């Protein structure tokens, strides 16, 4: 056994752990990251990057076909092998060498093996050959192990060797028939990708599609998937699964049966906390980690573990299960740990330098389906459930000149949710082709708590899709200056 001492020890070398370590080192401290898989984590190899690479070619092809002249120049369908080859490049061919090189350049120490908490500020790392290293932290231990796919206890499902998001993201052969269990983000995006790559896709969801977004966005994505040939079974459950002669059969609660070559389970995430030694600090292994506003791990009573030396960032604390928000937490936490090490107090006031206020008030998400869904802040339903006095303003994106120029027969919708008492934006959702780039403007308005009256003076360029902001504001005011009559405005 060997022993090592650092200022901060981080368990998990995904984007969240890397951001914590980077900020700690920039703050003048030493940091070690413990990792037993690929440095770079889920996002780099099995989620964000490879899945979006799977989707991008199909999106570009649809964009070209939405214009008459460009569409005539496009012949044939996507070549799956070429799409997968580009995906491989964005997954670095599942090589971590570039990520390890970055750690070295940043001055971050890498400790190989599986890390477990074995005492106060102490992590024991077990290598594949069974040897162990004890890593001690002077100031803090941070858990940034993320989450993994949840496989529900459906009778027979484990026996059919189902895919999870990892197998889908790293697929080498496109199945002729793919069944997807789950209608959330992963299920909807993979239905979009695999149908474009030639699979006959069937999706089964126990709720409506994309239950976390505004219903109008869910409906437009469902319509588009059906148009693309995806068979949707919504508001039903899979009750049993079995494999026979190579095919997978799913029995549904409405009496129907789905037959496929492979089945992808996309029913949510579970925390990677089962084997971290949480019992040594009075916590239950396998649970999501509860944290306070400083991201310090707390027990069921809300008290910090020990004297507050244990932190959790990213998926594992279940605040927002999105990579970019995990990285945001990592940046704030790394800076705060460095501040505390200097004997100072971090700024945890709302929107303060070390706060993670955006997790609750301005969480952002893009769903890369066809059409895209972009959302930030609260939905109308969530705002009403929270007791907020709100105004809901909707507008047809297809009636905006920039959208009409962007694609023939452009279909989309945008919604802003306004806090009527403070007259500030607290939620925004858009659905339509290429709406992702609208999101940052809404995020700035929400995070900056910009009064709606001030937004009138943020003049959108004409003719762009961003003109939707003017139309939403006019609708909110009840303006009759412009009459679109369901067509793209041509007045400028």
UniProtKB/TrEMBL annotation:
Domain FAD/NAD(P)-binding as annotated: residue spans: 6-330
Residues binding FAD, per UniProt: 52, 115, 145-147, 315
GO terms assigned for molecular function: dihydrolipoyl dehydrogenase (NADH) activity; flavin adenine dinucleotide binding
Manner of cofactor binding, per the entry note: Binds 1 FAD per subunit.
Pfam families associated with the record: Pyr_redox_2 (PF07992), Pyr_redox_dim (PF02852)
Keyword Nucleotide-binding: yes
Obligatory cofactor(s): FAD
Taxonomy, superkingdom: Bacteria
InterPro entries: Class-I_Pyr_Nuc-Dis_Oxidored, FAD/NAD-bd_sf, FAD/NAD-binding_dom, FAD/NAD-linked_Rdtase_dimer_sf, Pyr_nuc-diS_OxRdtase, Pyr_nucl-diS_OxRdtase_dimer
Residue ranges occupied by any Pyridine nucleotide-disulphide oxidoreductase dimerisation domain in the UniProt entry: 365-469
Cystine crosslinks: 43-48
Keyword vocabulary terms for this entry: FAD, Flavoprotein, NAD, Nucleotide-binding
Keyword Hydrolase found: no
GO biological process: 2-oxoglutarate metabolic process
Binding, NAD(+): 182-189, 268
Entry-linked PANTHER family: DIHYDROLIPOYL DEHYDROGENASE, MITOCHONDRIAL (PTHR22912:SF151), DISULFIDE OXIDOREDUCTASE (PTHR22912)
Family: Belongs to the class-I pyridine nucleotide-disulfide oxidoreductase family.
Annotated protein name in UniProt: NAD(P)/FAD-dependent oxidoreductase
Species this protein is from: Kribbella soli
